[in-house]
Task: structure prediction
Amino acid sequence: MIRLAHRAAGMIGFLTILVFWTSTVLSEAFGTLSTVAAVKLAIPWGFLVLIPALAVAGATGFRMAGASTSPRILRKKQRIPFIAANGILILIPAAFYLAWLASQGAFGTAFYVVQGIELIAGAVNLTLMGLNIRDGMRMTGRLAAA
Result:
């Protein structure tokens, strides 16, 4: 049961961040300012799904890993603090700030600088989470080893 919870929570977290990131890019590329504002205002509400999912994925992952010295598990464990710090220190504050700016209609330099930082940090987290998913799939045999 713990493996299923870990897998489900990890995928929900990854897909939620992917939806945030993709929605931002698509709204900027093809939408109006009102579309961009709607996306920026919706993202913090998505934290109600994202934060519990990441907490469950982290807790179940650490529980399953225990004191293992497997190189794949150690790599996964090394990525987690960076993913968490990136989210807590950059992504969450940026999302709230961008939502506030969007609610004010303030689509100036500050908005786009912070959005650029947010997109880079989001891409980094997606990459690191993707590597963790890959390593997890290799450990369970769902993906062939390199």
About this structure: The longest helix spans residues 71-104. The radius of gyration is 17 Å. Residues 37 and 105 are 8 Å apart (CA to CA).
